[in-house]
Amino acid sequence: MVDIIDEIDGICERTLAEANFPGVRMRLWEYTLDQPKDLKASGQQRDFVLLISKPQSGKVRSWYRLGPWDSYAPFNKLVCAPPAAVETHFSGRGTGHAFSCSFDPDFLRDHTGWDCDLSDIGQRTGCTSDRPLMKETMWQLFRELSAPGFSSHLVVESLSRVLAVETARHFKARPRAAESLKGCLAHWQLDQIQEYVETAVEQDVTIKDLAKICGLNADYLRRLFKASTGQSLGAYIEHIRVLRAKALLSHGEMTIKQISTQLGFASPSGFSIAFRRGTGETPRMYQRRTHAQ
User: Fold this and answer.
1) Are the C-beta atoms of 224 and 213 separated by less than 8 Å?
2) How far is CA 38 from the centre of its chain?
3) What single string gives the DSSP state of each residue in 51-88?
4) What digits encode the pLDDT tens for the residues 22-64?
5) What is the pTM of this model?
6) Are 246 and 279 within 8 A, CB to CB?
7) For a FRET experiment, which of 26, 54, 227, 255 has its CA 20 to 30 Å from that of 161?
8) Which domains, from first to last, does the chain contain?
């Protein structure tokens, strides 16, 4: 995945630190998007790759997926991806730091005893991980490569073995998609929808966009979201926008037209209609009332 990102024209990269052992490759790097464009690339990943990303400035969105059968997952989650065809997608503008750890399948097999059988990977749900030890180990390695201490190479090598075991445990525990959904969205899909809607800037969030991120068609996503939350997806999107609008109106630093544009509404009148539907007040009435308090 990291090698694939290297090949994307439009992303400037700079390696900050590296650590390599037989079967293990680690890299701390900085990436910059100078122009707010959609950038995509695809290729074949040979190793198991773990990756975390930390934005530094601006607003950069980044996702990956395992070929056409998987769903897009954001890089700001802990990515834990197996050898497979990988697609990456970047958009926005800004700078971030990322740390990746790649394991050769033979290394995992030799050091954990796991046979690395991923023959059913096409039937598995996304490959982000919420294992606490895996997350903390990745961040410890991130910090160690950022600011090496005494006998840093021993610390890094020891933590890499912990990470190898956690990687094997992660994939052995992954449920099949058919077993995990049962007519509802998976937790990672709900997380992606929430993150995308809450952080969208100056763009109209459409159900088609969300369906693409979740790897579903729009109609099926609508049904699953309603079954999972009891609320329609359209109503949820509007609710989040209204909450953000209330915060911006309370601050009083932006005009209603500017707020409408930032939240992705097609026009100030459309924004006013949605805001009144959600609050019973027009944006101007709400702004005056909160400022008078």
Assistant:
1) no
2) 15
3) EEEEEEEEEEEEEEESGGGS--EETTSEEEE-SEEEEE
4) 999 999 999 888 776 667 777 778 889 898 888 777 677 777 7
5) 0.58
6) yes
7) 54
8) 2-180 (2.60.120.10), 182-292 (1.10.10.60)
